[in-house]
């Protein structure tokens, strides 16, 4: 504990040395499709399987895909010399960086920015194939090297993927590509993750990054590399040791509503994932939680009365001796076209995912130095 306390003091002392990427909160693919009256058709055609990127046995084929229609945050990076800019999802649940390329003719590439190797003097071809499946979709492509700039810091010889095909649902996403922030063992084709090169090249003072997601404003969200930003949280940081150093995986001891354990009884495993929009859990547990808070099943969703949100109870995650409380205002999603729905859904696996619904309430710190996740109440 003494080492941890010293590390926290060091983080605060070095607060001015970190790198920050502003995240923009945009209209989600679901919102756009609902406005166009296409959501029900699209959700049937591309069903959502949030576990696609976590469980190899559940990976979809290249002909199918899943969608995470509620992802709302992206930041801008650049690749090449001179720089070519791309909007990316900063995803703590994967490890590869990839963007669309001029070699891609999929519909999803045609309405996004594409990387052009011929425009970069620092580009170097690798040629190894890349094939990745996410809850958001899938892509195939080839690997290359170039200078990648994140928050003004230039990462030399960073390996990245150039897409050649992208699954159809990605055309509805605002972001161009994905920047993975999980451990290198997870990386497809053995590609070194961006943050590992940031650490290796001395671009960050501390081997950690942290994520703040705004609740309502389109602005204000941020990824901080190299430390924590005290402006974005209040109270103390609760540090949780990882149960696996592949994803940012932790042990949850139980989930309760009104003081009664209703899910994860006896403990369960959860991944803190900035690249998943909802809270995902086993079907029986998710049904139990939603029933306990007064949500009712309706097709693929659990719906609630929009007029009764203030009276709904909090959902409490018990983690490492601490209580992480989610009020109804955090776990209920409101839509102009489809009313109010629960932000907790089934993933068809025993693994839990603590996505953006959770991270909006708790500033999340990912420490590679300590192999821990830190959680603090978000401002």
TrEMBL record:
Catalytic residue list: 91, 273
Alphabetized InterPro entries for the sequence: Aspartic_peptidase_A1 (IPR001461), Aspartic_peptidase_AS (IPR001969), Aspartic_peptidase_N (IPR012848), PEPTIDASE_A1 (IPR033121), Peptidase_aspartic_dom_sf (IPR021109)
Signal peptide: 1-17
Superkingdom per UniProt: Eukaryota
Coiled coil: none
Any GO MF annotation of the entry: aspartic-type endopeptidase activity
Record keywords, A-Z: Aspartyl protease, Digestion, Disulfide bond, Hydrolase, Protease, Signal
Record-listed E.C. numbers: 3.4.23.1
Disulfide links within the chain: 104-109, 264-268, 306-340
Gene Ontology biological-process annotations: digestion; proteolysis
PROSITE patterns tied to this protein: ASP_PROTEASE, PEPTIDASE_A1
Sequence ranges assigned to domain Peptidase A1 in this UniProt record: 73-376
Record's function text: Shows particularly broad specificity; although bonds involving phenylalanine and leucine are preferred, many others are also cleaved to some extent.
PANTHER family: BETA-SITE APP-CLEAVING ENZYME, ISOFORM A-RELATED, PEPSIN A-3-RELATED
Family: Belongs to the peptidase A1 family.
Record's protein name: pepsin A
The organism of origin for this protein: Gadus morhua
Taxonomic lineage: Eukaryota, Metazoa, Chordata, Craniata, Vertebrata
């Amino acid at each position: 504990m003494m080492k941890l306390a010293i590390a926290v003091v060091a983080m605060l002392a070095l607060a001015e040395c970190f790198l920050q990427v502003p995240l923009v909160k945009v209209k989600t693919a679901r919102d756009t499709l609902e406005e166009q009256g296409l959501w029900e058709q699209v959700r049937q055609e591309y069903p959502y399987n949030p576990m696609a990127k976590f469980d190899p046995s559940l990976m979809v084929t290249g002909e199918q895909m899943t969608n995470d229609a509620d992802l709302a945050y992206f930041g801008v990076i650049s690749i090449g010399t001179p720089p070519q800019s791309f909007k990316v999802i900063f995803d703590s649940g994967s490890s590869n960086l990839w963007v669309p390329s001029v070699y891609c003719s999929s519909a999803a590439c045609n309405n996004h920015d594409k990387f052009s190797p011929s425009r970069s003097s620092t580009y170097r071809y690798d040629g190894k194939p890349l094939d990745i499946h996410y809850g958001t979709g899938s892509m195939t492509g080839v690997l290359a090297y170039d200078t990648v700039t994140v928050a003004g810091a230039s990462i030399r010889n960073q390996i990245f993927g150039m897409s050649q095909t992208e699954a159809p649902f990605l055309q509805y996403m605002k972001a161009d590509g994905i920047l993975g922030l999980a451990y290198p063992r997870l990386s497809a084709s053995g590609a070194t993750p961006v943050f590992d090169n940031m650490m290796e090249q001395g671009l960050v003072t501390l081997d950690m990054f942290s994520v703040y997601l705004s609740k309502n404003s389109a602005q204000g969200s941020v990824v901080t590399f190299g430390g924590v930003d005290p402006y974005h949280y209040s109270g103390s940081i609760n540090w949780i040791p990882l149960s696996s150093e592949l994803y940012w995986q932790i042990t949850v001891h139980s989930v309760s509503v009104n003081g009664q354990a209703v899910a994860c009884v006896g403990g369960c495993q959860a991944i803190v994932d900035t690249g998943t929009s909802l809270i995902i859990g086993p079907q029986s547990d998710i049904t139990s939680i939603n029933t306990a808070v007064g949500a009712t099943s309706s097709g693929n969703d659990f719906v609630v009365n929009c007029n009764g949100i203030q009276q709904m109870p909090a959902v409490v995650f018990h983690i490492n001796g601490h209580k992480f409380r989610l009020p109804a205002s955090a776990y209920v999603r409101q839509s102009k076209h489809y009313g109010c729905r629960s932000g907790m859904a089934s993933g068809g696996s025993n693994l839990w995912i603590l996505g953006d619904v959770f991270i909006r309430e708790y500033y999340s710190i990912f420490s590679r130095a300590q192999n821990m996740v830190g959680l603090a109440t978000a401002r």
